[in-house]
Amino acid sequence: MASTDIVYEQVHFRHDPKWSVRLRSAEGGGLLLCVACAIEMMETEEMPSVRKCFALSSISGFLKRSAGALRELFRQDHRVTLHFITTLIDLNCLNFSDSCLCVCDSVLVQLLLEFHNELPFHFVLDEVHKQLSGQLSGKRLLPTFNFLGNLVKTVPNVGHSFITQYGPLLDHLCSALAYPDEALKTSVVHVWLQLMQMSGDAGAQYLPIATRDRLCTLLLQTFSNASSAQLIKNCAGLLWQLVKYEEAVSVLMSSSGGPLMCDADEDVLTNNSPSLIQDQEQQPTDHSLLPLLLKKLLLSGDESLQVTSAKCIAAILVHSPSQYCALCIKADLPGFLFDRLASSSSEMLLWSIYSCLVLLTEEPLFFSQCHSVYGIESLVRSLKEALQLSNLEAPKQGFLLLTEILERQPPGVHLFPSASGFVAVSEAVKAGVSSSCLLVAAQAVKAATALFRLNHQSRPVQYQQLEELVEAISSRFPELILTSPSLRRSMGNKRSSDSSSQTFRSKGFLLQALICFQAACRLAEECASEPALMKNPFTAPYKHSGAQDSLESVCQCLLRCCDSVWIPAVLRTCDGPPSAQILESLYSILCSQFVLLPSLMPQFAKKLVSSGFYRLAVEHKALLCSGNRNPNLNAACCGFLQKLSMCLLFHFENNASISQDDFDEVETLLQCSLPALRCHLSDWPSLLCEYQEPRAVQYCLVMMLYLALKQGDRLLPDQAVFSSVVVLLQSVQEQGDCVLPRSVLRSALYLLAVTQDRSPSLDGAHLNYVSKALSSCQSFASLYSHHPALLHFIWRYPELAQKYGALVLELWLAKKSQTGARQDTVLRLQLTIVLLLALMEKHPNVMLTLLDMVVGGQAPVAEHVLHVLKVLLLGQMCSDYAACITHSKLLVLQNKLISTQLHPSAAASSLPVVLKLLCLTQASDPPSPSIYSNMEGVCFKLLYHAVSSVAGMLKPTDTESLLPAFNFLQCCLRLSPAHSSDRAVSVLLSNRGLMDQLQTVVSSSSTPSPPPPSCPPLALLCCSHLLLSSLITLQRVHSTQVHKSIIWSLDTAVHRLFCQKRNTDNLLLVSYLRMLQALLDADLASPVVCLSTGPGLVGPRPLAPEDGALYPLGSTGAQCLLITLSGLLMQKHELLLRTSVNCLNSLLGFLKRKNPDLAKQAVCQPWSQFLLYCNFSSGEKCLLHPALLRLITLLLQYGSTAVLWEPDLLHVIDTVERSGIKELNHEAARALRSLLAQ
């Protein structure tokens, strides 16, 4: 039949050929179509419906393939076209099959679409109206409604004419909804749906009000009784179009469902619907039907219906949340929405439900009925699903919902009573923060901000989750684009056109992140204020310290992220125009750090200052807060500057000189003055120099300049600071103001000192202002700052040096002595020496002041000054300074003696230090010959007064003073030139008091048993022995008269050396040997020392000839000494080894003079050969030791047979040849020379 022509053979011959056309095909030939025949075929009742259907199908095909040819055919006479259309419309009322009716509708719609610009559509609508006005059954009207729906959907402008010009036809459409046939209702609702969707879904606004209201009511009735899936779908679509308009929503929501409800057992859902709404019949008559219908859609298994339901709910709530939210909540719509969230992964459905719930959260009833508690678990689960979707709008809306719930949740009702619930929501938020879309991440950060509230924390608080959230947000900072596009282009970084939007989104994320961090800091502060929240009660006590899940760990994380991430990110934004909101959050966060971790704040504050945060905060205040703009930013900056300043003042100041009142005064000053300070740094000098009342702002500037400068941040040039501070001091005094606050005056003095090098010197008038300002403070120590520049400033001006020079030196050295034990002492001492040398080069009077401090200063300071002078004297100073010190010492010692006689108790404490200074000066390198002649008399006077001090002032028990005194006397004797040593020994030997002191010391240790507790200290006993040995030697040289001798027990000394040397200190052994050496050189008969002996040395009386010759040592004593010395020569102690060789030399000399045979016998004993063998076996280094070389020389000198040319001497010579003569030191070379000569 497809190739059959469309002609009516019985009547075709009567028709004009102009109504026929042959449509060619690509293969050739074609079909003949006669329009007149087609019309008569449709009008003839006897024509089979199959033939009619075929003809219509062919015409439909012609319209699709050759619409132009048919268009030209119909244009010959529009009456024919209208007649053909009318005929087709009438066919809809016949009992055709559904397929025929469908083809008829298709042909009608195609024709009208082809001629929509040429034919009046009211003709078609009139024909439809006639049909609807006729007495046709509902079933016969179904094709008409189907055609009408297709017509409105396909042909433009028909719907608008329909709504605006055919009110009666609209009434027929409304009336048709009352028919019980659901197929008819489905078609009618479809027509209404197409009418509403015309002109961009704006059809409802053209409806007459009465018609619209009637339609809303009928729609609810139809919807409530709908059972077919298509009808439910059409009703849902029409409902979605109507709820877009507030007036329609008002009618829909005010309609009660009582009389319109169907029976409870009617199945109104699809086959996948889980259940009916069992209680619809029990609803009160004033209850709105629409929420129930929307719940029906949510319960359906059709996802598109669920989406439509959610969209309708959102559209209803948008119009008037206050009017409809409560109604929806009472209808339990939130619970149904949350249930859908838990079982859906559709992007559109999730987004729609999120949007509905966001609107519902605006109603307090949502929370009072615990819908948030009911649905939070479903929400968290759906968020994890939404983050896996490709469309990121759904998770963004979901996190918005979570944020609203967290922010609006009443504090009394906890969302997360257990730890598992809080962990789940924090994991979801962390996943959102890590989203690839920055907008989603920003919304997740907002949710985290709301989550950082105390009422949302579980018990125990999940500190580890909080820390992980903070770290997750901070990890996004490196990828943010925070610099402006223009700046990046200027740096050669060309970006795409969306760089501005990227920067905008990045800054938005940064701002929200900073707000979140601020909330985290606030939460940490709140937890810290409640002891029950600080620690997890389920954590073992030993794990609390430094535990990962602890408040301390969170605080450390906040500080770490603030230092390494947040601050650098905000500083990057400052490359362009700064944001007041971002800076406000940053400064608030920094303020919180001073509260959370006060123990770590000193170093953090120091780092902030060195990074220029004083300058940043001041400039931000000036730039963004002038003219009372951004008061919150101003308050945040002021709080930060105050906390930073107080932290620096408390931890980096000398707390001993600053009282609590000073701290409170500074805090009050900053608190009152900082809010009004909104000027740039460049304006500070003029502000300091201007006269203004009150002066709190000026004082505040001085304090900040001081604190910043102490940490190395110079906010202003030095010259500007110096001149401004001087002018301020002048202005304060000229205006007759009260005394400057002590903290301000201390700061001003420090600023003047540190900035003086780059500033001109003070003239007389300005110096007077400074001096008066310093004099206004009762205690200069409270103004002291430990800085070298302060010493230079005070000593730079004689007027200030006269008043405060000694004080500032004492404070400086007292500070050094206090901190020396905890710091690197050597380095600090070197810095002190460098400073004092530089100071003395400019101001020589500093040395006199130091010497005065040795005499009159406190013990720690005096000791420290002495230590400093020691380093100065040991090669660090020129000889001119040495001479100056020597002359000054004489004056000091004379004054000391006078003050001691007048006030013995007051001066006794400083006398040891003076004596140590005397000894130190004497032991230093001797002055050059050119100036020695001037100093010789002074040195003798010093010696005289020192002897007088020992004799007249010191008691035998005053060991602290006796030791430096004896040391000084020993140095004088040992280091005095030969031509003046006679006077020195005369002064000492003529003083009976000195000899009494020595007698007391040596007598107290004369017992051979272990020393009693009253025995003098070891150092004092050693020094006494050495002093006596020097006196014995020099008295013998100069034949000096002795006025009083010292009694000394020789047998006790030999016994200690022979029997107790293992338990005796090496230095004490050395002093005993030196004493014996001096006595042996004098043949044990010196007027200085009267020796006592016993039977243990000389044997019983009468004495044997050998003992008589060696009296008072005796042969036994000599033998004991030889054995003792041979044992000591085996020791490796350097000083003991040298002293033992010297003592052996004196002993052999004494024996040779008294009994030559005994001396010969002594050196030939086996011990000498064994001694040499042991030393030769100790290696080349020991063999070439000066002491061993001298020992060999002694043995050769006294004829010992223990030393042989071979192998002993050859061994020595070979060793020298191997090591080389040049490798020997001076002493070893001299000993070798003596050996070879011998």
Automatic annotation (TrEMBL):
SUPFAM superfamilies, per the entry: ARM repeat
InterPro entries in UniProt: ARM-like, ARM-type_fold, Immune_Signaling-Apoptosis_Reg
Annotated TM spans: none
Any GO BP: meiosis I
Name of the protein: Meiotic double-stranded break formation protein 1
